[in-house]
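Good morning,

Attaching, inline, the backbone tokens for the sequence recovery test we're adding to the shared suite. The designed sequence is right after.
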């Protein structure tokens, strides 16, 4: 197997990026579970649904937006249904599909967790970096997103939230455009 190696700069950047991503996600995920009883997967779905019209999204669009497989979404939705944060509803015009719908309890759970989540992002990420570093990191993420869209997803991801103008992070999480 003839593979090129990463040079020292590339290796350092890749390893530090992976380490940073894991550390920040772990801290935020632990906070969500400890303080709100939500898993990271719960929160991602609640976040998406809280920013969609009518607080609902077709399951196939959710799969595409999160880059999950159908079975993962189905299992996650089943767990969330049992806790009352989402329900499945027939998709309009598609008898085979379903929509994932945010319940009032799910919206309340999201609204309770969101301020702490933002505080966690500030504590572990935004407040640690200078404005120039934040701008540089945003530019880097946008460059990689453009590469991904052009090279790995011709035609783009089918993500209704993106086409509706929601701000979306490189990890696929929508950031609310209005306060919740």
């Amino acid at each position: 197997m003839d593979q090129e190696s990463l040079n020292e700069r590339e290796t350092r950047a890749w390893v530090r990026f992976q380490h940073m991503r894991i550390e920040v996600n772990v801290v935020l995920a632990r906070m969500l579970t400890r303080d709100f009883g939500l898993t990271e997967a719960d929160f991602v779905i609640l976040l998406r649904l809280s920013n969609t019209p009518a607080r609902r999204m077709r399951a196939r669009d959710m799969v595409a937006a999160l880059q999950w497989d159908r079975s993962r979404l189905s299992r996650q939705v089943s767990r969330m249904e049992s806790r009352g944060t989402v329900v499945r509803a027939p998709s309009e015009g598609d008898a085979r599909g379903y929509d994932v719908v945010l319940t009032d309890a799910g919206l309340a759970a999201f609204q309770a967790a969101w301020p702490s989540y933002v505080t966690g992002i500030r504590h572990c990420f935004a407040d640690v970096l200078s404005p120039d570093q934040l701008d540089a990191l945003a530019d880097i993420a946008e460059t990689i997103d453009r590469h991904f869209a052009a090279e790995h997803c011709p035609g783009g991801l089918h993500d209704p939230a993106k086409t509706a103008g929601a701000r979306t992070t490189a990890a696929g999480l929508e950031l609310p455009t209005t306060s919740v």
